[in-house]
Amino acid sequence: MIPSPLPGQPQLHYRNQSLYLEDCRLADLAREHGTPLYVYSTASMLEALAAYRRGFAGRRVQICYAMKANPSLAVLQLFAREGCGFDIVSGGELARVLAAGGDPARVIFSGVGKTRAEMRQALEAGIGCFNVESEAELEVLSEVASAMSLRAPVSIRVNPNVDARTHPYISTGLKGNKFGIAHERTLATYQRAAALPGLRVVGIDCHIGSQITEKTPFLDALERMLDLVAAIEAAGIAIHHIDLGGGLGINYNGDEPPAADALWARLLERLDARGYGDRRLMIEPGRSLVGNAGVCLTEVLYCKPGEQKNFCIVDAAMNDLPRPAMYQAYHAIVPLEDRAEGREPVVYDVVGPVCESGDWLGRDRSLAVQPGELLAVLSAGAYCSAMGSTYNSRARPPEVLVSGSAAQLVRTRESVSDLFRNERLPGNNA
Ligand SMILES: Cc1ncc(COP(=O)(O)O)c(C=O)c1O
Ligand SMILES: N[C@@H](CCCC[NH3+])C(=O)O
């Protein structure tokens, strides 16, 4: 028997030895829509949001969902209806927020490489704030806004040089990272921003990394940010909001990140102690809102014994769920039907059909499965479908959103003909 509920995913449990997300039997969804298939739980996302809100009770806080984690229109619509804003990093993301009914005034635009066209698009939409990441970007934004007879609302993203103690590819607040403006250059950059005709300073911002499982890096970043706010305001520039970014981790494999409400209770204590308790706050959580709300369902195609390794070959691959291949990330993998009794488990590498040895979803997993049976890759709500590609000309999987016993197909399966959509054979331009 597999323990239930499963770690990190409160809405996922076995009932009569069959895996359910909320009240939906996942094997039924896999049969109806085929595999690979992503399934997301509404209750799980709402509960994650509620945990933040409990932590912020009575404070002025704008939660801006970092939509890069999961840009499904259905997920965006859910957060928009809950009154959330959005942290975006491209014009494409802005278009998706607007299509999902999000409020542009609650959009903040991060990213080191905003183009002039993206700046214009965001100014036309009337977004809430640009989180500016370099002095050069500041000059360009002022120029673009002035040409539109506007003043762009800006925060400077500070690189506080704090170690988030996470995977090096997803640490963003260290001196060696490309993000933000060095702590030491911040005051001078604010003075320049205040002098530029096309800008209006509204806040200050930082984001130190992702999948952070300790409170200390957040606390260290907060102290540095408050030191800067004091220095900037002493120079006569008002900071209306403090944005502390996202980055709170989730439980993939026994990780024990602080709960959102406990983390924020601690951060608010420090804000109060330093006299900034009534300042408007912004946060940009991504993974912690959606990561444990999703699973990716896949069918076992073949079991292939080997001399050194046994392979369980499934129909999902690195193009569908790239985190293991990219970061050696761990995602739990469990059967949709718990049939282990009477079967001898085998230790497998769970791999996909893509022609790369890096195409694996799990290593050394003990499973009692046979071809034709179904597996669920857990904690697949964040940075999984979002980072998917069509590598090996594989069509993108569909997505289903469940709520109680209701299940809705919110992204249809891409057909193989979709893969030709934007291509022409040269000389055949008619
Ligand atoms: C600027 C910015 N804000 C927010 C996030 C969201 O991070 P997470 O998904 O770890 O909460 C990211 C991604 O790391 C980011 O780059
Ligand atoms: N893609 C990363 C997170 C990146 C965060 C974006 N700045 C992951 O899957 O863990």
TrEMBL record:
Which residues get modified to N6-(pyridoxal phosphate)lysine? 68
**Assembly and partners?**
Homodimer.
Highest taxon of the source? Bacteria
- Kindly give the InterPro entries that the UniProt entry links to this protein: Ala_racemase/Decarboxylase_C (IPR009006), DAP_deCOOHase_LysA (IPR002986), De-COase2_C (IPR022643), De-COase2_N (IPR022644), Orn/DAP/Arg_de-COase (IPR000183), PLP-binding_barrel (IPR029066)
> What is this enzyme's catalytic activity, as reactions?
meso-2,6-diaminopimelate + H(+) = L-lysine + CO2
Q: What does this protein do?
A: Specifically catalyzes the decarboxylation of meso-diaminopimelate (meso-DAP) to L-lysine.
Upper lineage is: Bacteria, Pseudomonadati, Pseudomonadota, Betaproteobacteria, Burkholderiales
| Metabolic or biological pathway | Amino-acid biosynthesis; L-lysine biosynthesis via DAP pathway; L-lysine from DL-2,6-diaminopimelate: step 1/1
Q: Which residues form the Orn/DAP/Arg decarboxylase 2 N-terminal domain?
A: 45-290
What is a GO molecular function of this protein? diaminopimelate decarboxylase activity
Similarity field = Belongs to the Orn/Lys/Arg decarboxylase class-II family. LysA subfamily.
Q: Which residue positions does the secretion signal occupy?
A: none
Q: Kindly list any coiled-coil regions of this protein.
A: none
Q: Which GO terms describe its biological process?
A: lysine biosynthetic process via diaminopimelate
Is Lyase there in the keyword field?
Answer: yes
Residues bound to substrate are 287, 323, 327, 356, 383
Using the UniProt record, name the top-level EC class of this enzyme in a single word.
lyase
The EC code for this enzyme is 4.1.1.20
Domain called Orn/DAP/Arg decarboxylase 2 C-terminal: residue spans: 38-381
State its cofactor: pyridoxal 5'-phosphate
This protein's species is: Melaminivora suipulveris
Binding of pyridoxal 5'-phosphate occurs at: 247, 284-287, 383
Q: What keywords is this UniProt entry annotated with?
A: Amino-acid biosynthesis, Decarboxylase, Lyase, Lysine biosynthesis, Pyridoxal phosphate
State the protein's name. Answer: Diaminopimelate decarboxylase
Name the active site residues: 355 (proton donor)
